[in-house]
Amino acid sequence: MQSPKHIHLIGICGTAMASLAGMLQMQGHYITGSDAAAYPPMSDLLRGLGIPVYEPYAECNLELRPDLVVVGNAISRGNVELEYVLDARIPFCSMASILHDEFLRGRESLVVAGTHGKTTTTSMLAWIYEVASWRDTTLAPSFLIGGVAENFATSFMVRPTRPFLLEGDEYDTAFFDKGPKFLHYFPDAAILTHVEFDHADIYVDLSAVKTAFKRFVNLIPRRGRIVAFDGSENVSECVARAFCAVERYGFGEQSHWRVTHLRHDGPLTRWTLLRGGEPFAELSLPMAGEHNALNATAAAALAAGQGIPIEAIAEALATFKSVKRRLEVRAVVGGVTIIDDFAHHPTAIRETLRALRERYPGQRLLAVLEPRSNTLRRNVFETALVDSLALADRVVLASVFKSESIPANERLVPEHVITALNERGVPASVHTDADAIVVAIAPELRDGDVVAILSNGGFGGIYQKLPRAISDSIVLRAGRTLQPRGDM
């Protein structure tokens, strides 16, 4: 686009869409958007940018006819704004296509893909490049991340330099383009973290998921490189026919990038990283969890192969501040620590709870889950979900989010999960919504408890309601007022 335009984004509060809105605004365009409901952190980002967000969807949101409409991948036929766009013949496109055409052409595209760990790993990679740019300004990265990277306090950055780092999503692109978004990004080099069955609403089985990742791998040129996790047979299958160099990372003796001497020191994780069997670096990360050490290793490996100095890699990881809604401490009140995590899949839930066990050893851990993602709302993952949640000392489930949109024979039944957990000796209960959950658990929480709230949405405002209720309970018990600390 050579001249400023009015661009309207339908579904603007999605993580990638909100970031795209900011990027287009930086290019000088006038941006508006709409969504069914706005919630942090992306609503805060858009508000800070001064981008108007209309709620709910309505034809009147398009009365000031835009020059172009970007249709989010969650938008389907029947949406009132989409129908208006089609009837009025307003030009439209997908998020992935405009990202490629306006931002990726002529740049070095580095893409982080995989079922888990994409957001955190991309954030780590961006921070590594940022630290390296303090010594070499040509390395200053542009990036697009599916979450707010706390080191930058944003999810995007656009600069005139060549490196462009982005999270490659395997979810479909738009109602008119059912291929994965990452097929639009044409990477020069890539990370592949994990490959598991996910997004059961668009992929029929694991084989279909693997096909998508094989197509992604097939886009990487011979001069490129893939850094791929070596602890997964699915990943091995997906990179088996790559035309470029493939470097594996993990804990195995045959790993090209091998994590050794992993240890936890309070909030810090430390390890020795070997490259081709030889010492490469001593690394530390101010985050808990074996999975985060692996994410950092992947970022370090890709960065090193692109010429980033070891010193910059080590300094960046040691000062990494995580991502909003990834093991984020939202409040501490009365000795109760409330954690917010985006966990959307049984494997992600398992790794989150394992990390919290490492970070808060000996403390009672409660898992509060909203089955909200298209994956968790389906019963295909019921057994795996039970296995993951069993790592907690107490489990609370909300009702399935918008359960009516899932066929009854495919829908998760929270009562089945609760029964299975209780049979394993894990106290568990189900409640209709956030308000009911707060009423049920706030009086029982005590000093030292850790509450992991697991949802990829707003969860009915539970992040604000639970701290207040805990404070009220303490007042009732102790007859005094206690002000909570954190994000209230």
From TrEMBL:
Entry keywords, A to Z: ATP-binding, Cell cycle, Cell division, Cell shape, Cell wall biogenesis/degradation, Ligase, Nucleotide-binding, Peptidoglycan synthesis
Domain spans labelled Mur ligase central: 112-303
GO biological process, one term: cell wall organization
Gene3D superfamilies the UniProt entry points to: Mur ligase, C-terminal domain, Mur-like, catalytic domain, NAD(P)-binding Rossmann-like Domain
Domain Mur ligase C-terminal: 325-457
Gene Ontology molecular function: any one: acid-amino acid ligase activity
Domain (Mur ligase N-terminal catalytic): residue spans on this chain: 6-100
InterPro entries reported in the protein's UniProt record: Mpl, Mur-like_cat_sf, Mur_ligase_C, Mur_ligase_C_dom_sf, Mur_ligase_cen, Mur_ligase_N, MurCDEF_pg_biosynth
PANTHER family named among the record's database cross-references: UDP-N-ACETYLMURAMATE--L-ALANINE LIGASE-RELATED (PTHR43445), UDP-N-ACETYLMURAMATE--L-ALANYL-GAMMA-D-GLUTAMYL-MESO-2,6-DIAMINOHEPTANDIOATE LIGASE (PTHR43445:SF5)
Protein name: UDP-N-acetylmuramate--L-alanine ligase
Organism expressing this protein natively: Edaphobacter aggregans
Organism ancestry: Bacteria, Pseudomonadati, Acidobacteriota, Terriglobia, Terriglobales
